[in-house]
Design brief:
heterodimer, A: mainly beta, seven-stranded mixed beta sheet, globular, B: mainly beta, five-stranded antiparallel beta sheet, 11 strands, 0% helix
């Protein structure tokens, strides 16, 4: 049971490049989330998927898109990366019975 | 939307002392309040949570209290140890009509706790 996994662990992009961050969970959770973490600002919700087949915007969705590929996988795409998107990105999934969210190990992204 | 304020931003204590971190929230409909611990370079991990129908919850050296009227909740760590040193985040989430919760968490800014041996 790996829990929540994310790839890649680190990534450096140039301004304007695109990339997709991958997230998968093996806990059979319905809900999945993408957060970004910046120094002094805590974690902020980018997008979430309450259940397979649905996605919705969070607090800071601009510049991002998501895909809930199936119940296990939830990806985050940056179409045209900007330096302001330099951050650590965490994926999480939630068990509905207790509301507990479990986080992945994170992806550290730098946009030059 | 919900707004969560967390204080202090840094907290330094001696081993064995108690530590208290406080959070306030803005949306009276919020009803789930978790606390996460994040060690350097690691993922956030849940250490304790509380729901709005409970005023206090304890788990060994950790306790959380909730005051719904004042819209604030606090984390209490007793007998602190050096391994308690980390960043602590509070968060708030609202359960919607009919009990449906999408689990959207709003986080505080974090508290860097340092426990000196």
């Amino acid at each position: 049971n790996a829990g929540v996994t994310q790839t890649p662990k680190f990534q450096v992009l140039k301004t304007g490049q695109s990339m997709t961050l991958q997230c998968a969970q093996d806990m059979n959770h319905n809900s999945m989330y993408w957060y970004r973490q910046d120094p002094g600002m805590g974690l902020r919700l980018i997008y979430y998927s309450a259940s397979e087949g649905t996605t919705d915007k969070g607090e800071v969705p601009n510049g991002y898109n998501v895909s809930r590929l199936n119940k296990r996988e939830f990806s985050l795409r940056l179409e045209s990366a900007a330096p302001s998107q330099t951050s650590v990105y965490f994926c999480a999934s939630r068990t509905k019975s207790t509301d507990t969210q479990y986080f992945g190990p994170g992806t550290r992204l730098t946009v030059l | 939307g919900e707004n969560v304020e967390q204080h202090p931003s840094t907290l330094s204590v001696q081993e064995g002392d108690s530590a208290v971190i406080k959070c306030t929230y803005s949306d009276s409909a919020s009803n789930y309040f978790p606390w996460y611990k994040q060690e350097l370079g690691k993922r956030p991990q849940l250490i304790i949570d509380i729901r709005s129908n409970v005023g206090e919850k304890k788990d060994q050296r950790i306790a959380v209290t909730l005051n719904k009227t004042a819209k604030h909740f606090s984390l209490h760590i007793t007998e602190t140890q050096p391994e308690d040193s980390a960043v602590y985040f509070c968060a708030a989430s609202m359960r919607g009509a009919g009990g449906t919760s999408y689990g959207k968490l709003t986080f505080g800014q974090g508290t860097i706790l340092t426990v000196h041996p």
